[in-house]
């Protein structure tokens, strides 16, 4: 089924378009609870016309905005974080020492500031291949890894190249005090790619699913909890058992959570303490649990190659639909949590 353009939507009526107006506001406030659009394949962005719904969140805002990916610290010292609530997609990745780090994807809207910004990891480049050539913001990389960054299909807007887009906050200590202005970052990457189909499908929840109040994802040295809020119609997060409050106010939490089980192995890189950097393998296939609307669904994920998106299917082979709004992809090891 082809994805309609804006012009086509106008011909068919504006009702469906209004149903998709759920993107985050500029101050990082959560999407509203408007009814989602009908289930349809997500579009490829084109120069002729923007897609009818944003392929990252199912909304109708910022359909042709450039894509910006940002690495954000996710340890207790970095909390509360700035700008995470405004992201379209948030990836949670294991890093050295069994801790986690976020990679937030922005397109439909931008917050005022982002951070704390931290360094890139090898897993990032495989994840980002499905976005074409996005702008990528980070604070540094392992010196041996820098060659891979330079060869990657990204527009680097790191601290090294981003100039005045970055600033230090006097309220925190290094390295947890580096922040960035996302609009300034994108000015330095004017040719960053626009949104494209990365495999997500949005629409009414499928039949079945288990009523689920909460779910906890675990790594060797960290955990994140997701508790359903019927009032806010989203999953409110905790970090190591503590409420995960945003710097701009409110609790961080998405409409849809995908707990994706993926093989995690050692890379050839180490951090300054000699710990191996994990590689989370997001190309391939495996199991996942999708949380939406107070229910959990057992699904299968599949990504045939790095330049393709990830599809999620139910037990009967149908596309798993997400709720309109922010999506978190929580990458956990396929097996017992371990430090590779």
TrEMBL record:
Residues 64-191, 219-329 form the DUF3048 domain. Residues 196-216 are annotated as: Disordered. InterPro entries: DUF3048_C (IPR035328), DUF3048_N (IPR021416), YerB-like_sf (IPR023158). The keyword Cell cycle does not apply. Keywords: Signal. Residues 1-25 form the signal peptide. The keyword Signal applies. This is DUF3048 domain-containing protein. It comes from Thermomonospora cellulosilytica.
């Amino acid at each position: 089924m082809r994805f309609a353009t804006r012009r086509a939507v106008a011909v068919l009526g504006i009702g469906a378009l209004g149903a998709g107006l759920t993107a985050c506001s500029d101050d990082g406030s959560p999407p509203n609870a408007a009814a989602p659009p009908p289930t349809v394949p997500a579009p490829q962005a084109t120069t002729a016309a923007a897609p009818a719904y944003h392929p990252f969140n199912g909304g109708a805002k910022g359909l042709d905005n450039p894509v910006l990916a940002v690495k954000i610290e996710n340890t207790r010292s970095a909390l509360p974080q700035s700008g995470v609530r405004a992201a379209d997609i948030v990836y949670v990745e294991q890093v050295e020492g069994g801790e986690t780090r976020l990679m937030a994807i922005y397109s439909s809207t931008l917050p005022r500031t982002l951070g704390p910004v931290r360094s890139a990891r090898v897993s990032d480049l495989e994840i980002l291949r499905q976005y074409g050539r996005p702008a990528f913001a980070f604070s540094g990389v392992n010196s041996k890894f820098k060659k891979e960054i330079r060869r990657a299909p990204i527009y680097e807007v790191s601290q090294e190249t981003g100039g005045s887009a970055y600033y230090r906050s006097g309220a925190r200590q290094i390295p947890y005090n580096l922040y960035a202005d996302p609009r300034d970052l994108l000015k330095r990457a004017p040719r960053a790619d626009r949104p494209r189909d990365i495999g997500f499908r949005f629409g009414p929840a499928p039949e079945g699913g288990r009523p689920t109040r909460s779910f906890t994802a675990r790594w060797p040295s960290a955990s994140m909890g997701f508790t359903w809020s019927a009032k806010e119609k989203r999953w409110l997060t905790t970090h190591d058992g503590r409420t995960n409050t945003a710097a701009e106010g409110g609790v961080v939490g998405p409409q849809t959570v995908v707990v994706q089980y993926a093989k995690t192995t050692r890379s050839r890189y180490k951090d300054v303490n000699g710990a191996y950097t994990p590689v989370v393998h997001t190309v391939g296939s495996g199991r996942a649990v999708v949380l939406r609307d107070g229910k959990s669904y057992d699904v299968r994920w599949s990504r045939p190659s790095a330049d393709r998106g990830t599809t999620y299917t139910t037990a009967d082979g149908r596309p798993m639909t997400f709720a309109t709004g922010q999506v978190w992809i929580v990458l956990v090891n396929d097996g017992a949590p371990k430090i590779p």
